[in-house]
Amino acid sequence: xxxxxxxxxxxxxxxxxxxxxxxxxxxxxxxxxxxxxxxxxxxxxxxxxxxxxxxxxxxxxxxxxxxxxxxxxxxxxxxxxxxxxxxxxxxxxxxxxxxxxxxxxxxxxxxxxxxxxxxxxxxxxxxxxxxxxxxxxxxxxxxxxxxxxxxxxxxxxxxxxxxxxxxxxxxxxxxxxxxxxxxxxxxxxxxxxxxxxxxxxxxxxxxxxxxxxxxxxxxxxxxxxxxxxxxxxxxxxxxxxxxxxxxxxxxxxxxxxxxxxxxxxxxxxxxxxxxxxxxxxxxxxxxxxxxxxxxxxxxxxxxxxxxxxxxxxxxxxxxxxxxxxxxxxxxxx
Length: 333
Hints:
Blueprint: H1 12-34, E1 41-45, H2 52-68, E2 72-76, H3 83-90, E3 98-103, H4 105-108, H5 110-113, E4 124-140, H6 148-157, E5 163-166, H7 171-183, E6 188-191, H8 195-204, E7 210-213, H9 214-222, E8 226-230, E9 259-267, H10 272-287, H11 289-297, E10 301-306, H12 307-328
Parallel strand pairs: 1-2, 1-3, 5-6
Antiparallel strand pairs: 3-9, 4-7, 4-8, 4-9, 4-10
Helix pairs in contact: 1-10, 2-10
């Protein structure tokens, strides 16, 4: 006699038990990966080693490593306005072992002006914003322009003869194009691969202006190699109390990016508990008194913004950037 096999649906209690067991098991795996795991967290940075953003990433990685008892290794993946490093992160597993520390412009500007192999918002989990770096308008110290008004007059007296240094597809590039249009200036663009080469070009006189992070140019300004004419933010910078704002310099109507926001992102579909724990570890590391002092000395400010708030803001900023880029007719490819 053959035994008859019956296929039965598991009871509601059994199904709940299975789901609960799976969830608990998954949480255990995530918790293990974030505390005491031998696998390293790879923190991808889209700027060259030795620059200010790289330095901040290494500062934060030390504190996070202590908290999570897990190595944090900084990887520099440079090129294509940062899109090479961003794309690399998008292709990884959302297991907490690969993160991106980079500017929010990587998601709201670069994909607008450059063809990129990823979806700027859909392919990522946004853990939150971490730090902010204010910008300044700088020129070579040898340039015969000691104020913003004198600089504008100089450009108008030599149409097409002067230029500015920028990284293509960045907020600085967008800002200068807007600056030129608003003031009807004939100022040429010279592209560079990073902020440090722009500073060197400024010092040597190869370019006559740039809008750069205060952290990049402050020491050169102190040494008399660079002159900072203004800061586009709403108030003067504590690091540079003698530098006027654009409004104080007589250009209140000019809208320039006050600075760069840097966030922590990961591949899409990262489990929320993992994302939150990682983000809190980074915020705590940035909030350590010694790290906070080093950040401020480097020209950065702690500027935490949780993932949900950041994600909503990025949607809005992307739409605004698309409108502005279309109005300025900017396209890299």
